[in-house]
Design goal:
Number of helices of chain A: 3
Strand order of the largest sheet of chain A: 1-4-3-2
Helix content of chain A: 10-25%
Strand content of chain A: 25-35%
Order of helices and strands of chain A: EHEEEHEHEEE
Shape of chain A: globular
CATH architecture of the largest domain in chain A: Roll
Number of domains of chain A: 2
Radius of gyration of chain A: 17 Å
CATH topology of the largest domain in chain A: 2,3-Dihydroxybiphenyl 1,2-Dioxygenase, domain 1
Oligomer: homodimer
Number of strands of chain A: 8
Chain lengths: 151, 151
Amino acid sequence: MAVPAAVPARISLVTLGVADLDRSAAFFAALGWHRSSASNEQIVWFKTADSALGLFPYDHLAADVELPVAAHRSGRGFGGITLAINVDTADDVAPALAAAEAAGGRILKPATRADWGGVSGYFADVDGYPWEVAWNPYFPFAPDGHLQLPD
Amino acid sequence: MAVPAAVPARISLVTLGVADLDRSAAFFAALGWHRSSASNEQIVWFKTADSALGLFPYDHLAADVELPVAAHRSGRGFGGITLAINVDTADDVAPALAAAEAAGGRILKPATRADWGGVSGYFADVDGYPWEVAWNPYFPFAPDGHLQLPD
């Protein structure tokens, strides 16, 4: 048996620090995402085809990481991380952005033909985190929707 | 066949805006992570058991999202998103943190028994993004290391 790597190549969870747990959970539920039974009143988990999504109050998450709460969260500019939902066809991008907006999100960038050969747009979720919706013809999916990056 | 959801439950990609693409790519390579052949001089991709990891220059990523560059990136406090690498046993947490430090990361929080029943610590990667290393006995893995959240 191979010796496991000390730091296995995994992103098991992506956790967003949120202002109002119920409001944020309602947003992802409105997208039709499946809330895991592991959720409780302090943290909410959604299943995805890739990393699991966690929602946790921002201040609690900052305390867990032992990092200071940012002085000016709103309007602080781009936080440096994007999450992408890749879709199956170019024509799926705009409807996904519209559905995210209908659920309470905000479109940051409409569906746009990208110079790398795909179609991409962005919405902000109810906490302002940027989600890309992209069609990328070079990145195929496994049958379960899990993205399969080329080797 | 079921009609696909407008916003499929996927986190296909997690992309980090980085200060120096070569430096950041070297960090994840030093962890033993597999760099995808889809990488080029402008963007680097690493395969994981869950969402794929992208590295892209921060300013370019901000421009792609059409969000302003944050005025004070360093010392701005917690950006609101954590990424977690779950490991197989409680005893795997501390060595993973040590390995991340040896690769050029910085330990934010040592391996700590958590009140939710697991063991958790955090390191910052070379761009300061917080990664949790956690053992969670309630969240099992698929054979490929993909986290399987309870239904």
